[in-house]
Amino acid sequence: xxxxxxxxxxxxxxxxxxxxxxxxxxxxxxxxxxxxxxxxxxxxxxxxxxxxxxxxxxxxxxxxxxxxxxxxxxxxxxxxxxxxxxxxxxxxxxxxxxxxxxxxxxxxxxxxxxxxxxxxxxxxxxxxxxxxxxxxxxxxxxxxxxxxxxxxxxxxxxxxxxxxxxxxxxxxxxxxxxxxxxxxxxxxxxxxxxxxxxxxxxxxxxxxxxxxxxxxxxxxxxxxxxxxxxxxxxxxxxxxxxxxxxxxx
Length: 249
Prior knowledge:
By secondary structure, the chain is α/β, with parallel strands linked by helices. The protein has two domains: 74 residues, CATH 2.40.240.20; 158 residues, 3-Layer(aba) Sandwich (Alpha/beta knot), CATH 3.40.1280.10. The longest helix has 15 residues.
């Protein structure tokens, strides 16, 4: 007998790359197939939800499971495609576990792009793009969003600023010097694309702060009177922005 495959948070959701329409066949990757068959003990006829960031969310039925893989068949759309706010998070990478946590929670908070950026005081020297994407995908599946944020290629702050699209305002979380509270800056901002920029453990170098403050498309902002950990600052900034300008209203 067919059944819905459920996790603690509700019906199992999977991100797929295949086009979705009624009757479409969807072949799962090896990890997803293993999860369905060996963790959830799925059987033919069981149902899950799938989304691809383009065609909304669909209820799909397990059609075949064998040596060639697991194939689902899309049956009915359960939600129309909706986009998240056009907000990027540019962040200095932190040690592995906090970075995993940051990517997961930023995805839940609705960012459209995650951009790792190396600053002068960044301790981490290498980025595992596949790990970042895997964390973002898992968070999108669990949070109910219909898109997975883009993962930008890691770059230096200098290169990032040189190639930055000037129409996208940067709100630079500056732990030193005078700055508007982020909530006030968000209220004064227009409706164009935006990005939050947060630094590493130890904050930005004085020369970096001076460079950022000199740019017309950068607005220094404050997150309050306390010094926050790098991962805390990024998530606090996103929460403030979403409550003022995003899709929480």
